[in-house]
Design goal:
By secondary structure, this protein is an alpha/beta fold. It contains 17 helices and 9 strands.
């Protein structure tokens, strides 16, 4: 998922080392340009449009202005939709009609399989522009069609960690050092729930061990290569071991009252972070920015980051940049994509808004390798996330991954908030999903 960027859906990020981030999450909903109009003048100056959603970080890192300095005849215009759930249907409509597409379009990881399977012929093959081996191996495979066409260059990924309130752990009598916390949950998310039960016994008044069982569910599923579909494209979510494990753990967390029961990115969720009533959050790389922004200065240094539960790395989130063939300047657009997703630019975006690079070349750059988060007790996130990124399994993606995940998450929220019985919640989820995927 990509958060507004709200749920990969507006996002602000924690400052890296001593960097101070002042930019607000983008709220622009500009209309897409019509690719049928040639955005150039008689002097050879052209305008390239980039359509994306939420916050990709290019504005905060000042990358478009830098590109213009390198290429004085090219001006880049960004057109941002706040919520990916509004952006994607519009993109599909534009692809189906062949009108209104930007020169460069963002695609969320939960949608990439559907686009690759049904719309690949409408995109430029970027394998002729980028070196796909520069990315973590599984990233570019997600954007590769059966004929070898690569329709998207990877932007960020979401390697998993565990964000936790060091001070609340201490008050509850739990280990608070990040290495000790990692050791306590080394056996997996089952150990995480056991730690939650310990926390609950001496929990500071008004606090909850985790924000959301649905977030934990997504973290569990994201650590598995097989999630909602098998390699043949058959939906298997009803029998998927990772889905069953995640669902059962979420049901257990809800029944034992270990969760605040707050759907992430809602007003209630942000208010809880601001109040300081959440002790842990399943934490893909981009989540640190959400926590620091919403928790505020009062909790700086009280949060920390530890390795995620279990021995299997997980990825939650990430996006791609693609170039529609219909654009008047597809060659120039492809070169822009190559530049935006190069190691140096991905490192700049990481510094600006905290999203972690998918291009492996960025991992050895000082700005990534040595990055720490002062807000999170100087957690060495460059090291933590790079180690995770290198061992994330290659997940099998399906065309309706996002729909399935969101529908199941909604029913987990119902178990937490309304006390819906697990069997009833699962029935509601599967019935709703089957209506969509057939």
């Amino acid at each position: 998922m990509r958060i507004p960027r709200t749920g990969r859906r507006g996002r602000r990020a924690a400052a890296l080392t001593t960097t101070v981030l002042t930019a607000s999450a983008l709220l622009l909903t500009g209309c897409s340009s019509d690719s049928d109009s040639d955005a150039s003048d008689s002097n050879g100056n052209i305008t390239l449009t980039v359509a994306d959603f939420g916050q990709f970080g290019y504005k905060e890192a000042d990358l478009f202005a830098k590109y213009h300095k390198l290429h004085p005849k090219i001006t880049v215009k960004e057109e941002t939709t706040a919520n990916e759930q509004d952006y994607y249907p519009k993109l599909l409509q534009q692809l189906n009609t062949g009108s209104g597409l930007a020169d460069v379009t963002g695609i969320e990881v939960g949608r990439i399989k559907e686009v690759v399977d049904t719309q690949a012929a409408k995109f430029t093959d970027l394998s002729k522009t980028i070196n796909v081996s520069d990315w973590v191996s599984w990233k570019e495979k997600q954007a590769t069609a059966s004929d070898g066409t690569v329709i998207g260059a990877g932007t960020d990924i979401g390697p998993m960690s565990l964000c936790y309130r060091k001070d609340l752990f201490e008050k509850a009598g739990l280990p608070s050092d990040r290495d000790a916390v990692a050791k306590a949950v080394a056996g997996g998310w089952e150990d995480y729930l056991k730690l939650g039960e310990q926390y609950k016994k001496k929990a500071p008044s008004g606090t909850y061990f985790m924000d959301s069982a649905s977030a934990m569910y997504n973290a569990v599923v994201s650590s598995s290569a097989q999630q909602y579909y098998d390699a043949s494209g058959k939906p298997i979510y009803k029998d998927s071991p990772s889905v069953q494990q995640g669902w059962n753990l979420a049901a257990e967390a809800a029944s034992k009252k270990l969760t605040h029961g707050l759907a992430q990115f809602t007003d209630a969720w942000t208010a809880a972070l601001r109040k300081g009533s959440v002790a842990t959050v399943a934490c893909p790389a981009w989540m640190a920015g959400q926590i620091s922004t919403n928790s505020g200065d009062a909790f700086k240094g009280k949060w920390d980051i530890a390795k995620a539960p279990g021995s299997t790395a997980a990825n939650w989130g990430g996006s791609f940049l693609a170039v529609p063939k219909s654009g008047k300047h597809a060659k120039e657009a492809a070169e822009l994509v190559k530049w935006l997703t190069a190691p140096e630019q991905q490192a700049e975006v990481f510094k600006a808004i905290g999203v972690f690079p998918s291009n492996k070349g960025a991992y050895d750059l000082p700005g990534v390798k040595n990055a720490t988060l002062p807000y999170f007790n100087n957690a060495p996130i460059g090291q933590i996330y790079a180690d995770e990124a290198k061992t994330i399994p290659e997940a099998v993606l399906g065309p309706k991954d996002a729909t399935i995940k969101d529908t199941i998450s909604t029913q987990i929220n119902n178990m937490e908030q309304r006390g819906t019985k697990p069997a009833d919640a699962w029935k509601a989820a599967t019935e709703a999903i089957d209506k969509v995927i057939g």
